[in-house]
Structures are given as structure tokens and as C-alpha cells.
Amino acid sequence: MTTVNPPAIPPNGTEQETRALLTELLRNFYGRNWVSGTGGGICGPADGGGLLLAPTGVHKERVGVDDFFVVDPADGSVMRRPPNAALRPSECNAIFCLAARERGARSVVHSHALSSVLAGDLARDADHVAIRDLEMLKGIRGVGNRDVHLLPVIRNTPRESELVEQIQRVLGDPRFASAFAIVVADHGAYIWGDDVLEAKRHAEVYHFLFEATVARHDRKEKETR
Amino acid sequence: MTTVNPPAIPPNGTEQETRALLTELLRNFYGRNWVSGTGGGICGPADGGGLLLAPTGVHKERVGVDDFFVVDPADGSVMRRPPNAALRPSECNAIFCLAARERGARSVVHSHALSSVLAGDLARDADHVAIRDLEMLKGIRGVGNRDVHLLPVIRNTPRESELVEQIQRVLGDPRFASAFAIVVADHGAYIWGDDVLEAKRHAEVYHFLFEATVARHDRKEKETR
Amino acid sequence: MTTVNPPAIPPNGTEQETRALLTELLRNFYGRNWVSGTGGGICGPADGGGLLLAPTGVHKERVGVDDFFVVDPADGSVMRRPPNAALRPSECNAIFCLAARERGARSVVHSHALSSVLAGDLARDADHVAIRDLEMLKGIRGVGNRDVHLLPVIRNTPRESELVEQIQRVLGDPRFASAFAIVVADHGAYIWGDDVLEAKRHAEVYHFLFEATVARHDRKEKETR
Amino acid sequence: MTTVNPPAIPPNGTEQETRALLTELLRNFYGRNWVSGTGGGICGPADGGGLLLAPTGVHKERVGVDDFFVVDPADGSVMRRPPNAALRPSECNAIFCLAARERGARSVVHSHALSSVLAGDLARDADHVAIRDLEMLKGIRGVGNRDVHLLPVIRNTPRESELVEQIQRVLGDPRFASAFAIVVADHGAYIWGDDVLEAKRHAEVYHFLFEATVARHDRKEKETR
């Protein structure tokens, strides 16, 4: 509704610009109920090869540009800390670093969206959900709208860091080579990209695919019974 | 969408900061349809041990920082009045004070969200609704994602103050010892925390749990019939 | 999300304040999809006993404070015109004036919300929809949460002005004496109040009642079949 | 919620005003999930008879007033380029120009809304979807609320430009002479108007019609089984 000019299409900018973009996206995602109740998170590229990592346990729409940790994707160790000494790094740390090492992801979104949980429910006893017949598949790098796109669905664990072993396995599974996302049953999704704007695009696309696939499944249940 | 820096992660601030946070949350909750039609409400800690209480019968997104009452949680008596003499304290007063006394809650949210009503419908003739298999359960203090979390569902009464007796009973019921919320059938929910930000987190988490539990229930109805 | 102080709880203000409030509400309602596609409308009290009436055929979120007509509720004649000579008074004129004369309404909201259409569908061959077992009923002046609240549902006509005869009839029907709203099948709803803020409250309450009644109806269809 | 005065109802303004309006609408549509994940697009009239065309592959809510191409509707050739040399014209180019030539459209919206996909699903093996019994039909120029409005539904193709042949055919089909929109199955919709504000009105109206028709269809499936 406002008439102010939107921010310019950002290049791969400075670390300060990336910090501003990450906080903007956290507010955007909060408005969509992807990171409500302090859940979910995001990371992006820092100067010097590290990852900017949002803190854990804080309301994500309130994270400021100075509140990020910088971690080493090689092992998740903290390279730089935020001035606010009360903050601790996100529980997503190990998983974000794994995606960075295995897939070269420079930005990862962790969503707690209801649509991702309901999409995970579709897997039932299978280890994946299949997405097809949607133009929006083209929003995923390398995927066409006639592909059947398989997304891994892994089991939830008591702590986020314990998901690592399962994630390592599905990242090596050739059935999921074209996936930029992993669904965690009962929990949410990890979605990544080469940079923050690709992770944003993939996050928006996958949530659309979740919603469409769930809506079509539920309708089909009714009509074919 | 805006690029302004968000407000810093608030500490347990001054009363003036708490008043500003409460009005911000009322606007936030209004945007989610949790407090529409002048319904719902919120309280938070005042200086001197009282509770800041929003007025009744006013559009909640229009409440200003000077519009709060300060009430004594011991008995709900008014300690300080807002300058606007036309305002009366919220009908939630007795219930908010009860949560403060019985659970040490320093902040309580009263929601009229549709999802809370539909979650209450799931109880039918039982006195509770069971929530399980959701990572977001970890957003409730002391609860794990493998717990089966029982929430009390009480009957609605003509006046809000008449709910007090039922609430007192369920707050003493050991089955509900881990609950930070009470659902009132046909009405909404009371959700609390140690401070305003915990009440906000719990409110966001419980609404997610309501929505997820309702969506899964409705889908299961279809599939198992 | 913003930290600016909200506008103060408005008294029954000057005409200029009423104009500002009406444009604010049109933007608010646009954001809820109640007045999209230039549909819907609103009126409120003008100085001198007239009604401020939004123009027809314009995008409602773009209406400015100077774009209102002032009409005489006795017969809908235009008392004052907006400076923009291209504007024409809303098609709601006759109906708004009728509500003003028959019920003393000083403010009427005309909604094109999907929930109002789906609620109208529930009437089928009956001439009303019954709303019950919802606390939010208390948001309607004079109604309690144990009342069964009957809302008239009238048939749609090719032109809005042709609804007048049906509306006159249901406004005189004692079954609907406590109603502050009329549902037009396939179309939307007219909702009124003594002043703009009561019309706003009633609009928010009735839309909640529409959504809740539709959701419960659809769920019951499934479970009792 | 804000009290600022909204932008005045725009006349058919200067090209600079049209650029500002197009970016405002892209942000508006992004907020509705019609152009998420860089999908969708819009065009409007440029000075000199060309069309202002948004760039491809960029986050649509971030498009600035200087980021538009100007293309010749006669053949889609680029008449003016944006200063940002990295931008390429939208894939919608050929289709937007076709609508301009065949229907005189000066503004076209391309939506990726879920409701447009679900509406397309209703066509099944037919080549259209029928919309009826909705007042909002009157929001489409020349259509009445008692008309049965037929919208063409075409098959999706791997590339957007390959849709052209099908679109040419349905634009010449007399059954669809009153349609200002084409649904692409599994994909979205193209919606147009004589100017930007009519395209906006038609876009809002058609999305409402999609949502209402899908909701009623799904409900009827349940009730008549």
C-alpha cells in the first residue's frame, strides 16, 4: 500500500547488507508464520568465509543486524560473537554447516511452517514426498515443470543436532540429488540456496509446493473415495 | 518488507517499555484475528508488583501506552487508573490475577482466535485436548517434542468472571501441571508466561499447536472413515 | 511490528476525524479481502445529520478523506459532493439510508468477504442462518453467548438498489430484531452500528461468526455422515 | 492501521506514475502470494505506445521504478532497457504483447496464486471452468451477476513462450469473448484490463471468484456424495 520505493534488487552485497537482508527476511517469514514462537532460523554468508547465524531462543522478528554469530562451516565453531553476551548460537548450527559443506549452500532457511508439517505427513511410512504437475517447480534451480521432484522426509528427534546423521544420509542419496530442501516430519523444513536471495526464492517456492500438494491430496482423498 | 532495523530484543525493561510492548503485541494479535471485535486482551508486569491490564470494550489495536490499569494480583483491585476516565478494566481481570497467583504468571494473553475455538471443539465430552507429535511443543517451557501435552478445556459461562471456579480447579489438576494455557470451549484461550516475551512465545506456539491439531484431526476424519 | 504509538481511542470526533477513520477502515478491510476489486463500502456520520458515503467503482483502499459524498438519509439525495467531479456515490446509498432510517444506524459496512458468501450458502432454502455457541456473540450489542442469533439471508438481485424491498421486509421481521447485519446470498453482508466504531466492532464480530459457523458446519458434515 | 492519507485515486497518469503504481502492485501481490518465488509479473502502458515490462527472475516485491523494460506490443522487441544491465525481460513478454494486440489490453497481471491452480484443476478434461452465482462477477467489465462466466483453461507447457499458440486460439473462441483472464492448468492465470487499475480490479475479482468457486466445489463434493 505504501508508495515508498522498495529496496533495490540487492547484489551479493557487503556483510552489513547481508545482515540487514537477513533481519528483513526474518520479519517477512515471521509474518508468514514460518518462524513463530522463536522457532526456525536463517543463515547467510559472512566476510571471510563464515556463516552469519541467528541466535537461538529469541523472537526471530526482533533479531537485529548486530545479533548474528559468525560460525565456521567446517565445524560450526564460533568465529565471531554478537555484542549481546546473553545470546547463544542457533541449534540449527550443525545442520546449516552440513548443508554448506555438502551442497555449497551459503544460505539456509529453517521453517516451522504448518504447510511443511502437513506435507511431511503425506510421506506416511515412505521416506519422501513426491511433487509434480506444478509450474512453480521451475523456481527450483535445475528443475522443470514436468519433473517429478522427490523431497526427503526424515524422522524428528528430541534435539535438532541429532538430525545430522539422517540429513547426511539423504544428502548422499541420488534420488534426492535435485532437492534443495529436506522435510523433517512433525517439525518443518530446511531449505537452502547459493546465496540469500536464492534461499529466499527456494523457501517461497517450496512452501507453495507444500501448500499445493497438501490441498490437492486432501481434495483427491475426498473425490476418489 | 521495510528495511528499518527492528526494535532490539527487549530485556525485562521499564514499565514504560512494557506498556509499549503490550500495545505492539495487541496490534500484532489484532492482525492475526486473535483480538478482533474488541475481544481478547493482555496483561504484563507493572512497577511495584502490579499488573498492567488493558481496558475492556475497546478496539485492542487502538490501545495506547497510557490506557492501561494497574491492578493488584492479590485481589484484582485497581491500584492505578488511566487518565482516560471513560475506560473500565478488562473482564479478564479476575482470571489474569488468578494465573498470577497460582502460576506466578507475570503476563497473560487472552485470545479469541478461531483456531482456539476449533481446538476446543475436539474435546467434545472430554475435559481436555491432547497435543502430540509436533516439534513446536518444545516452544513451551519444560515440554519436549515426544510428550503428549494435555490442555484443559473448560465450559463457557455467560460472564468471563464466572470462569474463575473452573479455572481454579484445572490449575490444581496434576494432569495439567505442564500446561501454560487453558482453552474455554466456544470462546478462546488463556495463555501465560513468566514475562511478556514468554507469554508471546507461548501464545504463538499454542496457536500453532491448535492449527496443526485441528488440521490433522480433520484430515484423519476423512481418511479413516 | 512497528513501535509507533497507535492512534488514540477515538471519541465521536469531528467530521474530519470521521473521514480519516473511514479511509483507515477501508484500507483495513481491503487487507482482509472484504472490499477487494472495488466492491463493498462504508458510511459514517457527517456534520449536519448527513451520511459520509464512499464513491462507487473505485479501489476502496485508495479512497481519500476528500472523496466522500454527504447524503441525506431521508431520501439518499446528495447534500455535498467531493471535489473530484468524476466520482459518483456508492450503489449502497439506498440501503445505507434505509438502515439509518429503520435502525438509527449512523455507520454501515458493506462487505464482499468470502466468509459472508459461504455463510449465506448455509441458509439453502431457508431465509436465515442461525449462529450459536460462540462467545463472540457478546460482541453484538444486546446479544448473549447463550442466545441463538438469527441473521436474515436475502436473495441477490441484478442491481444493489433492488435489494431495498427485501431489506425493508427483514428489518421489520421480529425474528431478526436483534440482528445488526443482513446477509445477501452470493453477494456479501450489510453490517451496521450506532457509530463508526460500533459498526467496525460488529463487522469484525460477524465475520468471525461467519468463519466459525462455516468451519463447524463443514466439519460436522464430515463427521455425521 | 496507519493514519497517513492513501495515495489519491490515480488518473491515467504519467509513465513515472505508472512505474510507481506497478511496483506498488507487485509488493501488494507479493503479500497475497500471487507472485512469490520470483514468479508472476505485470505490465502497463509506457509513453509512446510501448509496454512497461517487469524483469524476469527477480523477487517481484523488490522491483524498483527503474527496473522495467519497454517493449513494442507489435512483436515484443525491446524499445528501452533499464539501467541495470543484468536484467532480462520477463518470459511473459510474448503473452502480454498478444493480449495487447488481440484485446487491446494495456495492462496484464500474471499470477501464480494457489487459488488459480486449484480453479484450473476443476476443469479436469474440459477446456474451461464455469463461474456463476456470485455478485463479484459484476467486477468484470460487461459481466452481470446472473451470467455464467466461462474461463478458458489451457494446458501448461515447459516454457512460458510456448503457451502462445493455445492462448491465441482461446482468445478467438466466441465462448470466451467476455473473459478478461486465461487460466493455465498447474501454473496460474493471465488477467488483463484496459489500464493498470482495471487490470488490478480484474485480478482481485478473478482471484475472489477462484477462491469462492473452489470452496463451493469442495463443499458440494462432500455434501452430495
What are the main properties of this structure?
homotetramer; 225 residues; alpha+beta
Layout of helices and strands, plus pairs?
4 copies of one chain form a homotetramer.
Chain A: H1 15-31, E1 41-45, E2 51-53, E3 69-71, E4 78-80, H2 93-103, E5 107-111, H3 114-121, E6 128-131, E7 149-154, H4 164-171, E8 181-184, E9 188-193, H5 196-224
Parallel strand pairs in A: 7-8
Antiparallel strand pairs in A: 1-2, 1-5, 2-3, 3-4, 5-9, 6-7, 8-9
- The low-confidence runs of chain A, each spanning 5 or more residues with pLDDT under 50, are 1-9
Tell the overall outline of chain A: globular
Widest β-sheet, arrangement of strands of chain A: 4-3-2-1-5-9-8-7-6
Order of helices and strands of chain A: HEEEEHEHEEHEEH
Name the biggest interface: A-B, 36 and 33 residues
Percentage of β-strand residues of chain A: 15-25%
Instruction: Give the distance, in angstroms, between the N- and C-terminal Cα atoms of chain A.
Output: 44 Å
Helix-strand makeup class of chain A: alpha+beta
